[in-house]
Fold:
Amino acid sequence: MKTVANKAAIRNTPKPFEKPIYVTRPFLPPIEEFTDGLQEIWDNQWLTNDGPVLKRFARQLSNYFETDNACLFNNGTLALQIGLQGMGISGEVITTPFTFVATTHALYWNKIRPVFVDIDPDYYTLDPEKVEAAITPWTTAILAVHVFGYPCNLLALADIARRYNLKLIYDAAHAFGVQVGGKPIAHFGDMSMFSFHATKLYHSLEGGLLTFRDSGLRQTCDYLKNFGFKNQTEVVMPGTNAKMNEMQALMGSMVLKHLDVIIEKGQKIDAVYREHLADVPGIRLASPLHSDVRYNYAYMLVEVDQEEFGISRDDLYEKLKEYNIYSRRYFHPLICDFACYKSVALKDPLTVARRVADRILNLPVYYDLSLDEARTICDVVAHLQTKRGTQHA
Ligand code: T4K
Structure:
Protein backbone atom coordinates (compact mmCIF):
# COMPACT_ATOMS: atom_id res chain seq x y z
CA MET A 1 0.00 0.00 0.00
CA LYS A 2 1.26 3.51 -0.88
CA THR A 3 1.48 5.77 2.16
CA VAL A 4 2.94 8.76 0.34
CA ALA A 5 2.50 11.90 2.40
CA ASN A 6 0.36 14.47 0.59
CA LYS A 7 -0.05 18.24 0.68
CA ALA A 8 -3.47 18.29 2.29
CA ALA A 9 -2.61 15.77 4.99
CA ILE A 10 0.56 17.60 5.99
CA ARG A 11 -1.27 20.91 6.51
CA ASN A 12 -3.31 19.98 9.56
CA THR A 13 -5.57 17.51 11.28
CA PRO A 14 -9.05 18.71 10.40
CA LYS A 15 -11.94 19.21 12.78
CA PRO A 16 -15.55 18.44 11.90
CA PHE A 17 -17.49 21.32 10.36
CA GLU A 18 -19.83 23.07 12.78
CA LYS A 19 -22.70 23.07 10.29
CA PRO A 20 -23.50 20.36 7.76
CA ILE A 21 -21.79 20.70 4.40
CA TYR A 22 -24.09 19.23 1.77
CA VAL A 23 -23.13 18.04 -1.69
CA THR A 24 -24.95 21.04 -3.09
CA ARG A 25 -26.97 24.09 -2.04
CA PRO A 26 -29.15 26.13 -4.34
CA PHE A 27 -27.90 29.56 -5.39
CA LEU A 28 -30.31 32.19 -4.06
CA PRO A 29 -30.33 35.68 -5.56
CA PRO A 30 -30.40 38.69 -3.19
CA ILE A 31 -33.84 38.56 -1.58
CA GLU A 32 -34.66 42.16 -2.66
CA GLU A 33 -34.37 41.09 -6.31
CA PHE A 34 -36.86 38.32 -5.72
CA THR A 35 -39.31 40.45 -3.72
CA ASP A 36 -39.32 43.10 -6.47
CA GLY A 37 -40.29 40.32 -8.87
CA LEU A 38 -42.95 39.06 -6.48
CA GLN A 39 -44.50 42.53 -6.51
CA GLU A 40 -44.93 42.21 -10.26
CA ILE A 41 -46.68 38.83 -9.81
CA TRP A 42 -48.94 40.34 -7.11
CA ASP A 43 -49.79 43.26 -9.41
CA ASN A 44 -50.56 40.89 -12.30
CA GLN A 45 -52.56 38.51 -10.10
CA TRP A 46 -51.48 35.86 -12.59
CA LEU A 47 -49.86 32.75 -11.12
CA THR A 48 -49.63 30.09 -13.81
CA ASN A 49 -50.92 29.06 -17.31
CA ASP A 50 -48.53 30.93 -19.59
CA GLY A 51 -48.31 34.12 -17.53
CA PRO A 52 -46.27 37.23 -18.40
CA VAL A 53 -43.26 36.35 -16.23
CA LEU A 54 -43.05 32.92 -17.86
CA LYS A 55 -43.30 34.46 -21.33
CA ARG A 56 -40.44 36.84 -20.52
CA PHE A 57 -38.37 34.01 -19.05
CA ALA A 58 -38.95 31.90 -22.18
CA ARG A 59 -37.63 34.80 -24.32
CA GLN A 60 -34.54 35.14 -22.07
CA LEU A 61 -33.81 31.44 -22.46
CA SER A 62 -34.32 31.59 -26.23
CA ASN A 63 -31.71 34.34 -26.35
CA TYR A 64 -29.42 32.40 -24.09
CA PHE A 65 -29.66 29.23 -26.18
CA GLU A 66 -29.89 31.11 -29.49
CA THR A 67 -33.03 29.19 -30.50
CA ASP A 68 -36.80 29.61 -30.53
CA ASN A 69 -37.26 25.85 -30.51
CA ALA A 70 -37.67 25.55 -26.75
CA CYS A 71 -40.42 24.69 -24.30
CA LEU A 72 -40.57 25.17 -20.51
CA PHE A 73 -41.97 22.60 -18.05
CA ASN A 74 -42.55 22.30 -14.32
CA ASN A 75 -39.69 19.79 -14.00
CA GLY A 76 -37.11 17.97 -16.08
CA THR A 77 -38.64 14.51 -15.72
CA LEU A 78 -41.94 15.52 -17.30
CA ALA A 79 -40.08 17.53 -19.92
CA LEU A 80 -38.22 14.41 -21.04
CA GLN A 81 -41.28 12.18 -20.81
CA ILE A 82 -43.36 14.59 -22.88
CA GLY A 83 -40.57 15.21 -25.37
CA LEU A 84 -40.29 11.46 -26.06
CA GLN A 85 -44.06 11.27 -26.43
CA GLY A 86 -44.10 14.29 -28.75
CA MET A 87 -41.40 12.75 -30.94
CA GLY A 88 -43.37 9.49 -31.13
CA ILE A 89 -40.46 7.40 -29.87
CA SER A 90 -41.37 3.71 -29.37
CA GLY A 91 -39.82 0.22 -29.38
CA GLU A 92 -36.27 0.13 -27.96
CA VAL A 93 -34.06 3.02 -26.94
CA ILE A 94 -30.37 2.61 -26.19
CA THR A 95 -29.41 4.40 -23.00
CA THR A 96 -27.06 4.52 -20.05
CA PRO A 97 -27.54 2.81 -16.69
CA PHE A 98 -25.28 5.43 -15.05
CA THR A 99 -27.69 8.33 -14.54
CA PHE A 100 -30.47 9.54 -12.29
CA VAL A 101 -33.41 7.15 -12.40
CA ALA A 102 -35.68 9.75 -14.03
CA THR A 103 -33.91 9.23 -17.38
CA THR A 104 -35.20 5.64 -17.56
CA HIS A 105 -38.56 6.48 -15.98
CA ALA A 106 -39.24 8.84 -18.91
CA LEU A 107 -38.86 5.82 -21.23
CA TYR A 108 -41.01 3.61 -19.00
CA TRP A 109 -43.95 6.03 -19.03
CA ASN A 110 -43.81 5.97 -22.84
CA LYS A 111 -43.82 2.15 -22.88
CA ILE A 112 -40.34 2.17 -24.44
CA ARG A 113 -37.89 -0.67 -23.65
CA PRO A 114 -34.58 0.65 -22.28
CA VAL A 115 -31.46 -1.08 -23.62
CA PHE A 116 -28.62 -0.36 -21.22
CA VAL A 117 -25.09 -0.21 -22.59
CA ASP A 118 -21.75 0.62 -21.04
CA ILE A 119 -20.06 3.97 -20.50
CA ASP A 120 -16.72 5.53 -21.26
CA PRO A 121 -14.24 5.24 -18.33
CA ASP A 122 -13.06 8.87 -18.58
CA TYR A 123 -16.25 10.89 -18.91
CA TYR A 124 -18.88 8.35 -17.81
CA THR A 125 -21.01 9.01 -20.92
CA LEU A 126 -22.34 6.36 -23.36
CA ASP A 127 -19.64 4.40 -25.16
CA PRO A 128 -20.46 4.84 -28.89
CA GLU A 129 -19.06 1.40 -29.82
CA LYS A 130 -21.38 -0.25 -27.32
CA VAL A 131 -24.28 1.80 -28.66
CA GLU A 132 -23.69 0.64 -32.21
CA ALA A 133 -23.37 -2.99 -31.12
CA ALA A 134 -26.76 -2.83 -29.37
CA ILE A 135 -28.82 -1.61 -32.34
CA THR A 136 -31.64 -3.96 -33.40
CA PRO A 137 -34.52 -3.59 -35.88
CA TRP A 138 -36.63 -2.26 -32.97
CA THR A 139 -34.23 0.54 -32.01
CA THR A 140 -35.72 3.98 -32.64
CA ALA A 141 -33.48 6.31 -30.67
CA ILE A 142 -30.43 6.87 -28.50
CA LEU A 143 -31.03 8.55 -25.15
CA ALA A 144 -27.61 9.72 -23.97
CA VAL A 145 -26.84 11.71 -20.82
CA HIS A 146 -24.28 14.52 -20.49
CA VAL A 147 -23.74 13.15 -17.02
CA PHE A 148 -22.24 15.68 -14.54
CA GLY A 149 -22.27 18.13 -17.46
CA TYR A 150 -19.57 16.18 -19.31
CA PRO A 151 -20.50 16.26 -23.00
CA CYS A 152 -21.16 12.91 -24.63
CA ASN A 153 -19.11 11.88 -27.65
CA LEU A 154 -21.23 14.18 -29.83
CA LEU A 155 -19.66 13.40 -33.19
CA ALA A 156 -19.63 9.62 -32.82
CA LEU A 157 -23.23 9.49 -31.57
CA ALA A 158 -24.44 11.82 -34.33
CA ASP A 159 -22.70 9.62 -36.89
CA ILE A 160 -24.36 6.45 -35.55
CA ALA A 161 -27.78 8.14 -35.41
CA ARG A 162 -27.40 9.30 -39.02
CA ARG A 163 -26.23 5.92 -40.35
CA TYR A 164 -29.01 3.95 -38.63
CA ASN A 165 -31.71 6.63 -38.97
CA LEU A 166 -32.20 6.94 -35.20
CA LYS A 167 -33.30 9.95 -33.17
CA LEU A 168 -30.59 11.32 -30.91
CA ILE A 169 -31.89 12.64 -27.60
CA TYR A 170 -29.78 14.14 -24.85
CA ASP A 171 -30.63 14.24 -21.18
CA ALA A 172 -28.74 17.45 -20.46
CA ALA A 173 -30.16 17.78 -16.93
CA HIS A 174 -26.67 18.58 -15.58
CA ALA A 175 -25.37 20.58 -18.51
CA PHE A 176 -26.87 24.06 -18.32
CA GLY A 177 -24.12 26.53 -19.23
CA VAL A 178 -21.94 23.94 -20.98
CA GLN A 179 -20.69 24.86 -24.46
CA VAL A 180 -18.83 22.84 -27.07
CA GLY A 181 -16.88 24.54 -29.83
CA GLY A 182 -18.46 27.86 -28.79
CA LYS A 183 -22.02 26.50 -29.19
CA PRO A 184 -24.52 25.84 -26.36
CA ILE A 185 -24.77 22.11 -25.80
CA ALA A 186 -28.50 22.39 -26.64
CA HIS A 187 -27.49 22.69 -30.31
CA PHE A 188 -26.51 19.02 -30.58
CA GLY A 189 -28.91 16.12 -31.24
CA ASP A 190 -32.62 16.16 -32.04
CA MET A 191 -33.72 17.14 -28.55
CA SER A 192 -32.11 18.09 -25.22
CA MET A 193 -33.63 18.26 -21.76
CA PHE A 194 -32.32 20.57 -19.03
CA SER A 195 -33.40 20.23 -15.40
CA PHE A 196 -33.85 23.41 -13.35
CA HIS A 197 -34.24 21.55 -10.04
CA ALA A 198 -33.07 23.31 -6.87
CA THR A 199 -30.07 20.97 -6.63
CA LYS A 200 -28.77 22.03 -10.04
CA LEU A 201 -26.12 24.64 -10.74
CA TYR A 202 -28.83 26.66 -12.48
CA HIS A 203 -32.38 26.38 -11.14
CA SER A 204 -35.90 27.77 -11.09
CA LEU A 205 -36.90 26.11 -7.76
CA GLU A 206 -38.04 23.19 -9.94
CA GLY A 207 -38.34 23.27 -13.69
CA GLY A 208 -37.29 21.80 -16.99
CA LEU A 209 -36.59 22.87 -20.54
CA LEU A 210 -36.65 21.05 -23.86
CA THR A 211 -34.81 22.34 -26.89
CA PHE A 212 -35.42 20.77 -30.31
CA ARG A 213 -34.05 20.65 -33.79
CA ASP A 214 -37.54 20.24 -35.34
CA SER A 215 -39.51 23.47 -34.82
CA GLY A 216 -42.84 21.57 -35.06
CA LEU A 217 -42.15 19.83 -31.75
CA ARG A 218 -42.59 23.03 -29.81
CA GLN A 219 -46.29 23.27 -30.68
CA THR A 220 -46.83 19.58 -29.84
CA CYS A 221 -45.10 19.99 -26.46
CA ASP A 222 -47.09 23.14 -25.70
CA TYR A 223 -50.25 21.08 -26.21
CA LEU A 224 -49.01 18.06 -24.28
CA LYS A 225 -47.99 20.04 -21.19
CA ASN A 226 -51.41 21.76 -21.07
CA PHE A 227 -53.85 18.81 -21.22
CA GLY A 228 -53.77 18.84 -25.04
CA PHE A 229 -55.80 22.08 -25.25
CA LYS A 230 -55.60 23.95 -28.52
CA ASN A 231 -58.18 26.45 -27.39
CA GLN A 232 -61.02 26.52 -24.87
CA THR A 233 -63.13 24.01 -26.79
CA GLU A 234 -60.62 21.77 -28.61
CA VAL A 235 -58.39 19.08 -27.11
CA VAL A 236 -56.12 17.75 -29.85
CA MET A 237 -54.20 15.08 -27.94
CA PRO A 238 -54.26 13.39 -24.52
CA GLY A 239 -51.91 15.72 -22.69
CA THR A 240 -51.06 16.15 -19.05
CA ASN A 241 -50.33 19.07 -16.73
CA ALA A 242 -46.65 19.95 -16.76
CA LYS A 243 -46.71 23.74 -16.90
CA MET A 244 -44.15 25.93 -15.22
CA ASN A 245 -45.69 28.56 -12.92
CA GLU A 246 -44.87 32.25 -12.43
CA MET A 247 -42.85 31.79 -9.21
CA GLN A 248 -40.62 29.23 -10.90
CA ALA A 249 -40.20 31.49 -13.92
CA LEU A 250 -39.32 34.41 -11.65
CA MET A 251 -36.63 32.44 -9.84
CA GLY A 252 -35.28 31.10 -13.13
CA SER A 253 -35.08 34.58 -14.54
CA MET A 254 -33.28 35.93 -11.44
CA VAL A 255 -30.73 33.10 -11.26
CA LEU A 256 -29.94 33.46 -14.97
CA LYS A 257 -28.55 36.95 -14.28
CA HIS A 258 -26.02 35.43 -11.89
CA LEU A 259 -25.02 32.42 -13.97
CA ASP A 260 -21.56 33.70 -14.91
CA VAL A 261 -20.51 34.33 -11.31
CA ILE A 262 -21.92 30.96 -10.23
CA ILE A 263 -19.80 29.21 -12.87
CA GLU A 264 -16.72 31.31 -11.99
CA LYS A 265 -17.02 30.30 -8.34
CA GLY A 266 -17.41 26.65 -9.32
CA GLN A 267 -14.24 26.88 -11.35
CA LYS A 268 -12.31 28.21 -8.34
CA ILE A 269 -13.62 25.43 -6.10
CA ASP A 270 -12.73 22.86 -8.75
CA ALA A 271 -9.17 24.23 -8.85
CA VAL A 272 -8.85 23.89 -5.06
CA TYR A 273 -10.00 20.28 -5.13
CA ARG A 274 -7.73 19.44 -8.04
CA GLU A 275 -4.69 21.01 -6.38
CA HIS A 276 -5.25 19.48 -2.96
CA LEU A 277 -6.44 16.03 -3.95
CA ALA A 278 -4.02 15.47 -6.81
CA ASP A 279 -1.45 13.69 -4.65
CA VAL A 280 -3.79 11.75 -2.40
CA PRO A 281 -3.13 8.06 -3.10
CA GLY A 282 -6.25 6.18 -4.17
CA ILE A 283 -8.16 9.30 -5.22
CA ARG A 284 -8.65 9.62 -8.95
CA LEU A 285 -9.87 12.99 -10.18
CA ALA A 286 -12.13 13.21 -13.21
CA SER A 287 -10.23 13.51 -16.49
CA PRO A 288 -9.68 17.02 -17.88
CA LEU A 289 -12.23 17.91 -20.55
CA HIS A 290 -11.35 18.55 -24.21
CA SER A 291 -10.09 22.06 -24.92
CA ASP A 292 -13.22 23.01 -26.92
CA VAL A 293 -15.51 22.37 -23.93
CA ARG A 294 -16.59 25.23 -21.69
CA TYR A 295 -17.59 23.38 -18.52
CA ASN A 296 -20.13 24.57 -15.94
CA TYR A 297 -18.28 23.25 -12.85
CA ALA A 298 -21.53 21.87 -11.45
CA TYR A 299 -20.03 18.67 -10.00
CA MET A 300 -16.82 17.54 -8.33
CA LEU A 301 -16.19 13.84 -8.70
CA VAL A 302 -13.57 11.51 -7.44
CA GLU A 303 -13.13 7.78 -7.83
CA VAL A 304 -11.90 5.95 -4.76
CA ASP A 305 -9.54 3.03 -5.30
CA GLN A 306 -9.96 1.02 -2.11
CA GLU A 307 -6.63 -0.74 -2.40
CA GLU A 308 -4.63 2.44 -2.65
CA PHE A 309 -6.82 4.64 -0.48
CA GLY A 310 -7.09 2.09 2.30
CA ILE A 311 -10.84 2.25 2.83
CA SER A 312 -13.72 1.74 0.42
CA ARG A 313 -15.74 4.49 -1.22
CA ASP A 314 -18.67 3.56 1.04
CA ASP A 315 -16.51 3.78 4.16
CA LEU A 316 -15.19 7.16 3.05
CA TYR A 317 -18.76 8.35 2.40
CA GLU A 318 -19.73 7.27 5.95
CA LYS A 319 -16.61 8.68 7.61
CA LEU A 320 -17.08 12.06 5.92
CA LYS A 321 -20.40 12.31 7.74
CA GLU A 322 -18.49 12.24 11.05
CA TYR A 323 -16.94 15.51 9.86
CA ASN A 324 -20.39 16.86 8.95
CA ILE A 325 -19.66 16.44 5.22
CA TYR A 326 -22.55 14.94 3.25
CA SER A 327 -21.11 13.71 -0.03
CA ARG A 328 -23.24 11.64 -2.43
CA ARG A 329 -22.75 8.49 -4.49
CA TYR A 330 -24.30 9.69 -7.74
CA PHE A 331 -25.00 7.29 -9.50
CA HIS A 332 -25.02 4.17 -7.38
CA PRO A 333 -26.68 1.72 -7.71
CA LEU A 334 -26.93 1.52 -11.50
CA ILE A 335 -30.48 1.91 -12.78
CA CYS A 336 -30.60 -1.69 -13.99
CA ASP A 337 -30.05 -2.81 -10.38
CA PHE A 338 -33.11 -1.00 -9.00
CA ALA A 339 -35.96 -3.43 -8.21
CA CYS A 340 -38.25 -1.88 -10.82
CA TYR A 341 -35.72 -2.40 -13.67
CA LYS A 342 -34.14 -5.69 -12.62
CA SER A 343 -36.26 -7.56 -15.15
CA VAL A 344 -34.74 -5.61 -18.08
CA ALA A 345 -32.56 -8.08 -20.01
CA LEU A 346 -28.91 -7.01 -20.16
CA LYS A 347 -26.89 -7.84 -23.26
CA ASP A 348 -23.90 -5.80 -22.13
CA PRO A 349 -22.01 -6.74 -18.93
CA LEU A 350 -21.69 -3.01 -18.10
CA THR A 351 -18.17 -3.59 -16.80
CA VAL A 352 -17.12 0.06 -16.72
CA ALA A 353 -20.43 1.35 -15.36
CA ARG A 354 -20.35 -1.19 -12.52
CA ARG A 355 -16.77 -0.28 -11.58
CA VAL A 356 -17.51 3.45 -11.66
CA ALA A 357 -20.75 3.12 -9.67
CA ASP A 358 -18.79 1.28 -6.94
CA ARG A 359 -16.02 3.90 -6.76
CA ILE A 360 -17.55 7.29 -7.48
CA LEU A 361 -18.09 9.98 -4.88
CA ASN A 362 -19.48 13.49 -5.43
CA LEU A 363 -17.85 16.08 -3.19
CA PRO A 364 -19.57 19.34 -2.25
CA VAL A 365 -19.54 22.16 -4.78
CA TYR A 366 -21.89 25.14 -4.77
CA TYR A 367 -21.75 28.92 -4.89
CA ASP A 368 -21.74 29.50 -1.11
CA LEU A 369 -19.00 26.96 -0.39
CA SER A 370 -15.88 28.91 0.54
CA LEU A 371 -12.47 28.01 -0.85
CA ASP A 372 -11.33 27.41 2.74
CA GLU A 373 -14.17 24.96 3.25
CA ALA A 374 -13.18 23.16 0.04
CA ARG A 375 -9.57 22.98 1.31
CA THR A 376 -10.77 21.56 4.61
CA ILE A 377 -12.80 18.90 2.80
CA CYS A 378 -9.59 17.92 0.97
CA ASP A 379 -7.78 17.82 4.32
CA VAL A 380 -10.41 15.47 5.70
CA VAL A 381 -10.23 13.16 2.67
CA ALA A 382 -6.43 13.11 2.84
CA HIS A 383 -6.51 12.62 6.61
CA LEU A 384 -8.80 9.61 6.30
CA GLN A 385 -6.44 8.07 3.77
CA THR A 386 -3.31 8.83 5.77
CA LYS A 387 -4.75 7.56 9.02
CA ARG A 388 -5.54 4.21 7.48
CA GLY A 389 -2.22 4.13 5.64
CA THR A 390 -0.34 4.75 8.90
CA GLN A 391 -2.23 1.99 10.69
CA HIS A 392 -1.15 -0.41 8.00
CA ALA A 393 2.42 0.82 7.62
N1 T4K B 1 -32.01 13.37 -15.55
C1 T4K B 1 -30.93 13.49 -14.76
C2 T4K B 1 -29.60 13.05 -15.29
C3 T4K B 1 -31.03 14.04 -13.48
O1 T4K B 1 -29.96 14.14 -12.69
C4 T4K B 1 -32.30 14.46 -13.03
C5 T4K B 1 -32.45 15.00 -11.69
C6 T4K B 1 -33.40 14.35 -13.90
C7 T4K B 1 -33.21 13.78 -15.15
C8 T4K B 1 -34.77 14.79 -13.52
O2 T4K B 1 -34.87 16.20 -13.44
P1 T4K B 1 -35.96 16.86 -12.40
O3 T4K B 1 -37.27 16.22 -12.68
O4 T4K B 1 -35.48 16.63 -11.00
O5 T4K B 1 -35.94 18.32 -12.81
C9 T4K B 1 -31.59 15.22 -6.67
C10 T4K B 1 -32.64 16.00 -7.43
O6 T4K B 1 -33.92 15.92 -6.83
C11 T4K B 1 -32.76 15.63 -8.87
O7 T4K B 1 -33.33 16.75 -9.52
C12 T4K B 1 -31.41 15.36 -9.50
N2 T4K B 1 -31.50 14.90 -10.85
C13 T4K B 1 -30.64 14.34 -8.69
C14 T4K B 1 -29.28 14.06 -9.26
O8 T4K B 1 -30.46 14.84 -7.38
P2 T4K B 1 -31.71 13.81 -4.50
O9 T4K B 1 -32.78 12.91 -3.98
O10 T4K B 1 -30.33 13.35 -4.47
O11 T4K B 1 -31.79 15.28 -3.82
P3 T4K B 1 -31.75 15.68 -2.28
O12 T4K B 1 -33.08 16.21 -1.89
O13 T4K B 1 -31.17 14.58 -1.49
O14 T4K B 1 -30.75 16.93 -2.32
C15 T4K B 1 -29.34 16.78 -2.37
C16 T4K B 1 -28.73 17.80 -1.44
O15 T4K B 1 -29.01 19.11 -1.88
C17 T4K B 1 -29.27 17.75 -0.02
O16 T4K B 1 -28.50 16.88 0.75
C18 T4K B 1 -29.16 19.17 0.46
C19 T4K B 1 -29.21 20.01 -0.78
N3 T4K B 1 -30.47 20.71 -0.96
C20 T4K B 1 -31.51 20.10 -1.62
C21 T4K B 1 -32.67 20.78 -1.83
C22 T4K B 1 -33.84 20.13 -2.56
C23 T4K B 1 -30.59 21.99 -0.48
O17 T4K B 1 -29.64 22.51 0.13
N4 T4K B 1 -31.73 22.69 -0.70
C24 T4K B 1 -32.78 22.14 -1.38
O18 T4K B 1 -33.81 22.84 -1.59
O19 T4K B 1 -32.14 14.13 -6.00
About this structure: The pocket of T4K is lined by residues 22-26, 75-77, 99-100, 102-103, 145, 171, 173-174, 195, 197-199, 208, 326, 330 (CB under 6 Å). The two ends are 8 Å apart (CA to CA).
